[in-house]
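Module 6 notes. Inverse folding takes a fixed backbone as the condition and produces residue identities as the prediction. Think of it as a translation problem where the source language is geometry and the target language is the twenty amino acids. Below is one complete input and output pair. Work through it position by position during the lab.
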C-alpha cells in the first residue's frame, strides 16, 4: 500500500467530519471523567469501604481501604457501595455533571466514553475503507494497534491544511 492510497482514504470530507467529532467527544469525555473522579474521591474519603475476604487472600491477608471508585469490585460491602453510588448520583446531579434525565445507575463519564468509542469505530471504518482496515481487524491485532491507527489518522488529518478544526 502506498502513501497515495493512504492519503486518499483519510483525506475525505467524511473522515474530516469524524475527526472533528472525535476531538469534541474525546475532550468531553476527558473533562467529564475528571469531574466525576473528583466527586467520587470526596465521597470515598467520607464513606470507608474495605476489600473483602476473597481479595484479602490475594493480597497476603491484608485488609485494604478502597479509595478508588473504579475498584469497588474488591469489596462485598453492598451497603457501603449503595451509599457511595447514591451520594455520587446526588452530588453529580447537583453539580450539573449528570443530567436530570440520565438513569440513576448511569455514570456520565462512562456514557461519554461509550459515545467516544462509537465515534472511534466510525472513524476507523471510514478511514480504513481503501486499506481494508476495520474495527474488528484492528481489535484482533490488539488495543495498542487500534489506538495507534486512530492516533495516526487524527494526526494526519490535523496536519492537513484543508482540515477545518472544530469550534469549541
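Target side of the pair, the amino acids:
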Amino acid at each position: 500500500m502506498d502513501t497515495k492510497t493512504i492519503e486518499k482514504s483519510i483525506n475525505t470530507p467524511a473522515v474530516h467530519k469524524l475527526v472533528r467529532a472525535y476531538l469534541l467527544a474525546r475532550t468531553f469525555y476527558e473533562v467529564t471523567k475528571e469531574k466525576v473522579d473528583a466527586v467520587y474521591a470526596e465521597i470515598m474519603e467520607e464513606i470507608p469501604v474495605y476489600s473483602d475476604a476473597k481479595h484479602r487472600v490475594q493480597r497476603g491477608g491484608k485488609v485494604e481501604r478502597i479509595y478508588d471508585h473504579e475498584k469497588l469490585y474488591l469489596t462485598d460491602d453492598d451497603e457501603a457501595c449503595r451509599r457511595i453510588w447514591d451520594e455520587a448520583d446526588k452530588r453529580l446531579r447537583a453539580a450539573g455533571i449528570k443530567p436530570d434525565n440520565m438513569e440513576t445507575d448511569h455514570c456520565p463519564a462512562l456514557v461519554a466514553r461509550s459515545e467516544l468509542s462509537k465515534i472511534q469505530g466510525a472513524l476507523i471504518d471510514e478511514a480504513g475503507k481503501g486499506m481494508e482496515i476495520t474495527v474488528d481487524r484492528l481489535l484482533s491485532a490488539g488495543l495498542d494497534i487500534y489506538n495507534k491507527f486512530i492516533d495516526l489518522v487524527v494526526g494526519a488529518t490535523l496536519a492537513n491544511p484543508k482540515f477545518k478544526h472544530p469550534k469549541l
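Reference fact for the lab report: Residues 9-159 form one domain.
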